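Signal peptidase I structure dump, as promised
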Amino acid sequence: MAATEPDAAVGPEPGVPDSRDAVPSFDPAVSPFGTADAARNGAPFHDAPYDGGSYNGASYNEGSYNGGSYNDAAAPVRELPEPADPTPTRGGGRAKKAKRRRVPAWLEILGYVVVSLTLTSLIKTFLVQMYYIPSPSMEPTTYKGDRVFVDKVSTWVGGAPTRGQVIVFHDPHNWMLSSAGAQGGPLNIPDMLAAVGILPDQHDDLLIKRIIGVEGDTIECKSADGPVYRNGVALDESSYIMNGKAGRPCANGTYTVTVPKGNLWVLGDNREHSGDSSWNYIKKGGDAGFVPTGNVVGHVVGVVSWLRDDHPAGS
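structure tokens r here:
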């Protein structure tokens, strides 16, 4: 080998391969992907900024790259399969999701009406019911045209009627024989509405009176002007009978009775205009004046007066 000059380049001998020849030099004009199209708009690939949707001023969309056509076939997109429906059918196939059907408005309204009528009927049968007062026999406690609320719970649970209660009861011995309700008649709309509790019950076989005596009590009237005696004790009825202290507690006549077991003795507060126990006993005799406890519907717990025609609030 010949001697080299101090400033001579040191390198391999001619014909001897150098390992550096195996590493190609980087050319910024050539794409690292091995094509000559790496430059975008005349700019080298490594100088192109990425701005979240555009690359070096050129829009990047699905199916296009660097402004040129992107062959979908060359790089197919793999679609994920739909998840299987976990609900199997009887045949083993996949069941379709059932669509929720909306209830028609008219059917929904009809359902509300049926439920309301059912609840109202249950309430008036077992709890409280309204009744119409058709006569003046209980004035001044109730007047003709008033409505009264009657508690039925006490009767259903076995509560015994007590003295002084105002009760509604079924006619025990044809006290209202001449009434239309006792004779019967065709069913009309008010009767149907009353049956479900929308209107107050106006049946004429129902009466309203005050309990004066229960089983075992001895009731006596010695004169028309009273007072009424119960078990030998005079009753002060001035707080509820018609005309108060000037009223006539025994207006229907004199009598002495002992109330049988399972019966009641009832009188109207308007004694001079009441077909009550005393009137029926004196006119018919026997047990015509007694009311079986089984005929009792319930006792009055409230009075509605403003609905009657002659009331200032109802006229």
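The two ends are 142 Å apart (CA to CA).
lmk if u need the other ones
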